[in-house]
Specification:
Length: 688
């Protein structure tokens, strides 16, 4: 942070904005937009504050002598949130187009973008969420998905707010779309974000009762009751921001004692794939097989789960909230819920880590990235996935399509990818997702037509989940990488290359040269191989999704070794080429492309990269190049193509648990070797 007064003022304002977002304290005028492209990514903006509050929550558990939340649970929750986030990105265009279609063609009446409309949208959006959430609990088919959110044991924490499935997201968003008949879509889309953000803090286990507020809004104590009431045969407290809907429709449950746990199906597994996609549906399938007749099966799917013992009929009592408020004023024991002096004195200290996280992660970088490159990337993504029928959009679609394919194969014009500022660089890795998904689908179809088995779906989901973990790490560390590059570039640069076409090609060669040695070190140094062999663990063959099967350590090592190039290369050009290199490696893992003739003497191809993956079992290791193959030929690590039936993928079939594969398994193997005395040095060559 700079020493100027304006920067300090911006920091303080931004800090209060972050806390306001967490608790739905937002100014209507500053969050009312006329276009969906102007809406900031609020859910990304609150990450520094969310991470700080989560850390403080665990510290308070530790100081109280209670057990903090299991790290595996926290990682599982955040990983699930990332899967839902990427689904939201892919479906965002469909949601926006559908809202505008209903708004323009079937709107009942038109509300203006005013403060009154903002508050009307707040109430209606929360009302729809109440019924969405209630349906997730009362319909067996939907409960099969939603019970994953209730599976954390032994208690919830703030990360549980991200413990959701893709089906939950689709149901809630679909039920919100009809509101576009009366609400302008930009205001509605903003409130959908605010509602999701507010529910994060509802899952903390530290906040006690909040007195009179609990008769109007939902609080953590009431939401704990929602999670803990299931084992007692009840189900209620479905509200998001407001609790009045539960009081009006007879689903309000008074708080349950802290020792009464109602979290269901806990301790099953930490496999995010099984929990997201298969486990609960298998249980539902077993129940369906026990019922005969199609009508009975449909009734089973649409009936309430067995634990819900309340009647199906809707109970409506509009005066119930008023009666409860009067009772509160007359009889409520406020003394039980006063905040302790220790909590009052400790709260100012919480600002210290929040200010540091905010200044490093948000203040200088995220607003610019959000306002420029991310918004442009979202627009390009909308052109590809939700094309209009106008001629200009058709032209944009064709142009964008060729642009996407060019990115996949490193076919980029130097003039259009040379930038003067890192904030102007588009998110190319996000832009290629539509084409990547299409090519991955085509690849699996080719396997099927050939009569060979397609890649296991679990492998593909594991690969994409690993890529998402690396992507969020890259977002969190991006500012550190940029500032480090500029520090070396401005203070220790050897000579200054201009932002020209010549510099672009020099950066291409040098970046690929550094990647060769980074990749080689990941194979030749034992402690690094403990991380990188996760990339080589897919069995029985690789596909295009294997390019995303990487660990966080791999990313950190490769980026650290590229930073010294900023001594001679302008950082914006270097950052762009680092993206191009990662994108090019995606198609190298396909198993359907044969040899490419003379091209293989200069560039790396899928056939040569398959040899890299398949050579390890034969005691060799080579073909480390990224884009260019000349480095392997120059330094003696080139391996001629290996026949297709030689399987060199190591450590296959261990587990599909992304947490174990990313964080622990291979390091446990290395640790066991160290304790046995079989490995006493960190450098190990695979050649005999």
């Amino acid at each position: 942070m700079d020493s100027t007064g304006s920067c300090g003022q911006d920091f303080v304002i931004g800090l209060f904005q972050q806390f306001g977002l967490m608790f739905y304290l937002i100014q209507p005028t500053s969050s009312t937009f006329s276009s969906p492209y102007d809406i900031p990514n609020y859910e990304l903006e609150i990450w520094p504050v969310f991470a700080t509050l989560l850390f403080i929550e665990q510290l308070v558990h530790w100081f109280r002598g209670s057990d903090p939340t299991k790290l595996a649970n926290t990682i599982l929750n955040l990983g699930s949130g990332l899967l839902v986030a990427i689904t939201r990105v892919l479906l965002l265009a469909i949601i926006i187009k559908t809202m505008y279609y209903f708004h323009y063609n079937y709107h009942l009446f038109c509300l203006s973008s005013s403060t009154d409309t903002w508050f009307v949208c707040l109430i209606l959006n929360d009302f729809v969420y109440y019924w969405s959430h209630r349906s997730l609990h009362r319909i067996h088919l939907l409960w099969a998905s939603h019970q994953f959110h209730h599976s954390q044991w032994p208690d919830t924490d703030m990360s549980t707010g991200h413990r959701r499935t893709v089906i939950d997201f689709i149901i809630c968003d679909m039920m919100t779309i009809p509101l576009s008949l009366i609400i302008p879509p930009p205001i509605l889309l903003a409130h959908m974000q605010f509602g999701r953000i507010y529910q994060i803090w509802l899952h903390t286990g530290l906040v006690p009762g909040l007195g009179r507020l609990e008769y109007l809004i939902n609080t953590p104590r009431q939401h704990r009751t929602h999670h803990r009431s299931i084992s007692s045969g009840q189900s209620g407290n479905y509200g998001g921001l407001l609790i009045i809907w539960d009081r009006m429709f007879g689903t309000y449950i008074h708080p349950i004692a802290r020792d009464a746990t109602g979290i269901t199906c806990s301790g099953i597994t930490y496999n995010v794939i099984a929990l997201q996609c298969s486990y609960y549906y298998k249980v539902l399938w077993r129940e369906l097989t026990m019922v005969s007749g199609v009508p009975n099966k449909i009734k089973t799917l649409l009936s309430k789960p067995e634990f819900v013992k309340v009647p199906n009929k809707i109970i409506f009592s509009p005066i119930a909230p008023l009666v409860e408020i009067v009772r509160c004023i007359l009889y409520y024991p406020f003394d039980k819920y006063l905040v302790s002096r220790w909590v009052e004195t400790s709260m100012p200290g919480h600002l210290i880590p929040v200010t540091e996280g905010y200044s490093q992660s948000y203040h200088t970088l995220l607003p610019k990235v959000t306002d420029n490159s991310n918004r442009q990337s979202n627009r390009r993504l909308l052109y590809i996935t939700a094309m209009d029928s106008t001629g200009s959009c058709g032209q944009n679609f064709v142009t964008g399509l060729f642009h996407q394919f060019g990115l996949i194969f490193y076919l980029i014009q130097p003039g259009s990818s040379t930038f003067n500022s890192p904030y102007d660089i588009p998110n190319y890795e996000l832009e290629v997702w539509p084409v990547f998904a299409t090519l991955l689908f085509v690849e699996q179809m080719i396997y099927w037509f050939r009569g060979s088995a397609p890649t296991k779906l679990t492998n593909t989901i594991l690969n994409l989940g690993s890529g998402l973990l690396v992507a969020i790490t890259r977002v969190l560390l991006l500012e550190i990488v940029i500032k480090t590059m500029y520090y070396f570039h401005f203070n220790y640069h050897m000579f200054c290359l201009s932002s020209s076409t010549d510099t672009w090609f020099v950066c291409l060669i040098l970046n690929d040269f550094v990647y060769y040695w980074s990749h080689r070190s990941l194979h030749r140094i034992h402690i690094l191989w403990a991380s990188h062999q996760f990339h080589h663990s897919q069995w029985p063959d690789t596909d295009m999704s294997t390019g995303h099967r990487r660990s966080v350590i791999d990313f950190i090592i490769c980026d650290m070794m590229a930073i010294p190039l900023s001594l001679i290369i302008p950082p914006p050009i270097l950052l762009a080429h680092m993206q191009f290199g990662r994108i090019y490696q995606i198609w190298l893992h396909t198993g359907v492309v044969p040899g490419l003739g003379r091209l293989e003497y200069l560039i790396n191809t899928p056939l040569q990269h398959r040899a890299h993956h398949r050579s390890i079992s034969s005691g060799q290791s080579g073909n480390y190049g990224g884009l260019l193959m000349i480095w392997d030929r120059m330094f003696g690590t080139y391996i001629h193509t290996i026949t297709r039936d030689v399987n060199g993928i190591t450590c296959s079939g261990i587990t599909y648990n992304v947490i174990a594969l990313q964080c622990s398994y291979y390091y446990k193997v290395l640790c066991s070797k160290l304790t046995m005395g079989t490995v006493r040095v960190t450098i190990r060559f695979y050649q005999k």
